[in-house]
Amino acid sequence: MPTLLEFVMVLAFSAVASAVVELLGRRLPSAVRLSFAMILGITAGHVGYQWCSDLELARVLGEPSSSAVTRTWVSFTQPTEARLWLPALLLAGLVPAGVISLLTPGRRPARPGDEVPKPSLRLIPSLVSALVALLAFAGLQLRVLWGSVYLLSEWSTTNAAIIIAGIAIVATFMATFGQLSTSRRYVSLQLLLTAALFGTSGLVFLMSGSKTIGMLTLSGLGATFALAVMTRLPSREPASSFPAFATVLGFGSHLALAYFYSELTNVNTAFLILSLALIVALPRFPKTWTWRARVAVPTMFTGALLASAITNAGMEFRKATQQQEADPYAEVYQ
Prior knowledge:
- It contains 14 helices and no strands.
- By secondary structure, the chain is mainly alpha-helical.
- The protein has one domain (about 5-100, about 125-325).
- The longest helix has about 35 residues, at about 290-325.
C-alpha cells in the first residue's frame, strides 16, 4: 500500500502547482486559466509521485538523494512505458485545451447593443472544437495503449480502430457538450464533484491492483480541489467556464490506464464514466426545476455512483485478499 509520504507528495505537488498557475494566469480568460491549471497540476502530481519513488530507490541503493532528481528527469524525458508517457501527453493537451476554451467561451448575459451571431457562425467554433478534441483523444489512446496486450494480441487492426474511434467520439461529445453547456453558477460545484471523482477513482484503482495508477489519479484530486477553493475566494473573478476538455482528458487518460493495465472491472468503469457524464452535464438539467433541485439531484446521483464504485471495489479487494490468505500460492497454481 502507498505510504503517507507518497500521498502527501502527490496531493501537495498537484494542489500547489494548480493554485500557482491559477494565480499567475489571472490575465488569461478563465476557461483557459482553469484548463491550464488543471492539466499542469495533474502533471505536477505525477512528478511528485515519481520523485518520491526515486527517493526510496536511492535510499535502498545507498545513493545520494540528488540521484532521485536525475532519475525523475530521465523518466519524463525518456519515457519507456504508458504511465511515463502520460505527463508528456497531458502537456501536449495544453494546446487543444487552449484552442477549445477560446472557441467556446463561458456564456454571459447579453448586453444592450450586442449582435446575436448567426447559428451557422456559432456552429463553426463548435465543429472545430469537436475536431480538435477528437484528434487529441484518439492520439492519447494510441499512445497509452501502444504496447498493451490488447493492442498487440487481443484486438485485430479493425477492432482496435473501431474501439479507439468509439472511445474518442464519446470523450469528444462529453468534452464539447460540457464546454458548451457551462454556467458560472455551477463551476465551483462541478470542480468539487470532479475532485470527488478523482479521489474515489484513485482509491478504486488502488483496490483494483494498481498502486501506481491509483496514486497518479489522486493528483487530479489535489489539482481540482485547489481550483474549487480558488474559484470561491472573494478576491478572484468568478470562473465563467468549467474546463470540460481538461477534465475529460485528465480523468480519461487515467481511466484508460487503469482499465487496460490493471484489474478494473467493467461495472466500476461504467460507474465512473456515468459520474463524469453527470458532472459535465450538470448545467443542462431542466430549467423548470428549482435551483436546489438542479444542484441536489445530479449531486446525489453522482455521489451514489461513486459510493457504488468504491463499495464494489472494496468488496472485490476483500475477496481477493481472503483468497490470497487462504492460498498464498493460488497465482502459481493458475
